[in-house]
Amino acid sequence: MSGPEQGATYAQAGVDIDAGDRAVELMRSAVRRTHRPEVVGDLGGFAGLFAFDTSRYRKPLLASSTDGVGTKLAIAQQTGLHDTVGIDLVAMVTDDLVACGAEPLFLQDYIACGKVVPERIAAIVAGIAEGCQQAGCALVGGETAEHGGLMKPDEYDLAATAVGVVDADNVLKPDSVRVGDVVIAMGSSGLHSNGFSMVRHVLLSGAEMPLDSTVDDLDDDRPLGEVLLTPTRIYTKDCLELIVETQVRVLAHITGGGLAGNLVRVLPPTVDAVVDRSTWQVPSVFQLVAGRGRVEQDEMERTFNMGVGMVAVVSADEADRALAVLTARHVPAWACGEIVAGTGEARMVRSYAP
User: PurM-like C-terminal domain: which residues (predicted)?
Assistant: First the structure.
């Protein structure tokens, strides 16, 4: 007669509590490096605590933003390089916050995965922590959820929410934009975190271009996978400094929808933004996608940032000062257009320089 059958365990069902605890321990030091003086307590509580200093603001407004990384994560999972996508995650959230003039205070992340591999989770969180340090916000906690049976063991998805603050009198609003203002472009670090469904369709479908090989059409000697995983540039501190040093009318974070699609979001209905394409050269990674996929220019422009990750609109007499501030902070920047009378549209003129 056989003995009693062994009872089912949570680990057998796809959730390894011990691995989750190990992941928390591995990420603890990285999280601590992001702490600001306002952070109360340590990692491991049920909620993150942040002591908000109301004395710094006359009429404080809390701002919040939520986003993810999207299908760029598929490249990380294919290459096994997991330490940069966390930077992308922070960038997508905090650069949205600063677009209204808000300083990001703290961020919480959410990681869903098929299997908790502590070292992989720690690498992801190390990237998130690095992004938080670049943005100046604290990582006060998050959640790692193991979805065994729903996601494959090597699959994961990321999301984050950040909270910031801006004085009500200092919110960047479209109604401050005037005819004659200058549009200043800030260079992107590459694809950032938009358009990767197109990238994967054009470059990787059917394994046309191995991720571990170099590509002659790119002005980069790194393997293709590393080029595609170049982290999104975080402009948060740069834009906050620009707001302090100059009179910024508005900021636009250039993500899905492209330059024109995001610039129109910060224009009043009485003006147009005219952007001169010939003021910058489109980075080779965009040219590679366009050429290999025979993607029309209009489709490229509404899918990708095309080399411009953030835009500031300033008065004409502040333009030189704004460019000097950004240059001093090692942000590639240039005047790319102007504000004219119109109906709230963003117009691209001329062809991109060869």
Answer: 178-347
The percent helix, strand, coil of the chain (3-state, each to 5) is: 40, 25, 40
Q: Which residues contact 15 (CB under 8 A, 6 or more apart)?
A: 146, 148
Per-residue pLDDT tens digits for 214-226: 998 898 999 999 9
Nearest 5°: the CA angle 230, 324, 98 is 55
What does the alpha-carbon distance between residue 272 and residue 259 come to, in Å, rounded to a whole number?
13
Decide: 191 and 258 in contact? Cβ < 8 Å.
no
166 has which bridge partners? 61
Q: Let me know the angle formed at the C-alpha of 309 by 307 and 311, rounded to the nearest 5 degrees.
A: 110
Q: Which residue, among 292, 293, 255, has the nearest Cα to 70 in the 3D structure? A: 255
Output the average pLDDT for the chain. Answer: 90
- What are the helix (H) ranges across 208-310? 224-228, 236-245, 258-263, 284-293, 297-303
Region of 44 (left: φ > 0; alpha: ψ -120 to 50; beta: rest) is left
User: Which of 160, 161, 158, 188 minimizes the C-alpha distance to 72?
Assistant: 158
Question: Radius of gyration over alpha carbons of the chain, in Å?
Answer: 22
Return the closest-CA partner of residue 335 out of 343, 233, 327, 178.
327
What's the angle, vertex CA 270, arms to CA 265 and CA 275, rounded to 5? 60
**Contact status, residue 340 vs residue 261, Cβ threshold 8 Å:** no
Strands 103-113 and 49-50: unpaired
Nearest to 202 by CA among 323, 117, 303, 271: 303
- C-beta of residue 97 within 8 angstroms of C-beta of residue 160: no
d(CA 247, CA 310): 16
The residue that leads in pLDDT, 294 or 14, is 294
Extract the tokens encoding 297.
């220019």
